[in-house]
Amino acid sequence: MDRGRSATGVINSYAGRAQCRAVHPVASRTAERYNWLILWHCRFRWQDALADGSVMANKITFYVTNDVPATTADHVLVFIKPVPTSDKYQYYAWRDLNPSPGSTASFKYATDVSVDVLDPATGSLSAQKDILKKQRFSAINPNGQSPYIDGVDINDIESGQRAILNSCTTPATSIVLNWYNMGKMVVSMGYTPPGSINVGKTTIYETEPALYFLAANPELIGPDYGLYVFADSTPYTAPAGTETVNVRWYRESPSGPDLFEFTPSSAASVSADSSASGANKAIGELPEMRM
Question: Three-class SS of residue 99?
Answer without folding.
Answer: coil
